[in-house]
Design brief:
The C terminus is likely disordered. It is built from 14 helices and no strands. With 335 residues, it is mainly α. It is 63% helix and 0% strand.
């Protein structure tokens, strides 16, 4: 039986409403002037992009598969992507060299102030659940956006990237696929594990983090940026996962929740070395002209993650939810 994808989420403005209607065969795509007026990191444009990108993953139950390569939809997506990419290049440009961009990632601050530090030190279970719900937009397809770059690499870079991706997909064992492990974490936290379940609840800042992966991954011209993004994720994952594992234990999130982050502490410490030396090193040996793009990918990842983290911490420190809609309880042991 054919796998049924998620249902279309609720539109958040004229752009996402137009894309939604077009996907359903019930209306016209948004006009270019509407795209030009939209807030580039806002709910409407980011959800519209998400709708376009998800056609390349699992699609939607209401949308025929042929829409994936609809030329009018692709032209609309390209206009939104141009705004998004231009904004990232302007707002996230910090380093001109890969070494400079990597240097900051390799040093752990003595007193960190980010989301994982907050959750480890003082986060409550409701905040852990919100974090998992928002991150589920990526973690339930973990490593998939990065797979787009594999046909665009060769030699040492391809071999290193494939080795890391193989681990992310469980090393050939279905029960160890990281997306499956995250679903187990969600079960511990009383969350619905259905793919795309929390898109309606997720903030614009969470959509930005996921959309950027798809933007980089789906364009061969941005392969250097995708490698930079992947490097940032792998280099920062091990220490961040250690803090999150401690947060899971302290808040009583459950054994599967603890295991997901414990697994990433060890695995991503190894992945960091492979990505730095083989993936980045191999890519730049073959295509040294891509160095500025790799640096941009690193800087852009830090930029969007800092925006996401700031949104979470601002809401949580004000004792309010970071989500657009409240979470339901899906498991009896969560209270």
């Amino acid at each position: 039986m054919e796998h049924e994808g998620p249902r279309l989420p609720t539109p958040r403005g004229p752009l996402s409403r137009g894309v939604d209607a077009y996907l359903r065969g019930a209306g016209s795509l948004p006009r270019l002037e509407e795209i030009a007026r939209a807030e580039v990191y806002g709910d409407d444009l980011q959800l519209a992009l998400y709708l376009c990108y998800e056609l390349h993953y699992r699609g939607f139950t209401e949308v025929p598969p042929e829409r994936e390569w609809d030329p009018d939809l692709l032209r609309t997506r390209a206009a939104m992507e141009q705004r998004f990419l231009s904004a990232l290049r302007t707002d996230a440009h910090v380093h001109t060299s890969v070494d400079g961009a990597l240097a900051g990632l390799l040093v752990e601050p003595v007193e960190g102030t980010g989301v994982t530090h907050f959750l480890r030190a003082e986060g409550e279970l409701w905040q852990v659940r919100e974090y998992a719900a928002q991150r589920s937009l990526y973690h339930l397809k973990e490593a998939d956006p990065h797979a787009w770059v594999l046909p665009r690499l060769w030699g040492r870079a391809k071999a290193g990237m494939a080795a890391v991706e193989f681990d992310e997909w469980g090393g050939g064992r279905a029960e160890r696929v990281h997306a499956a492990l995250f679903a187990d974490l969600m079960t511990d936290l009383g969350l619905d594990t259905a793919y795309g379940r929390y898109v309606d609840a997720a903030s614009a800042e969470a959509l930005v983090t996921v959309n950027m992966m798809s933007l980089f991954g789906l364009h061969r011209a941005l392969r250097g940026a995708l490698v930079g993004h992947f490097a940032t994720v792998e280099i920062t994952s091990s220490p961040g996962s250690r803090r999150l594992a401690e947060a899971m234990r302290r808040t009583g999130a459950g054994p599967a929740a603890e295991h997901f982050y414990d697994e990433h502490v060890e695995a991503d410490a190894v992945h960091e070395q492979v990505v730095r030396h083989d993936v980045i090193g191999g890519l730049l040996e073959q295509e040294p002209q891509l160095a500025p793009d790799v640096a941009f990918g690193i800087d852009a990842t830090e930029f969007v993650e800092e925006r996401f983290g700031a949104r979470l911490l601002t809401d949580w420190r004000a004792s309010r939810s970071s989500l657009r809609t409240p979470l339901a309880l899906e498991a009896a042991h969560i209270s």
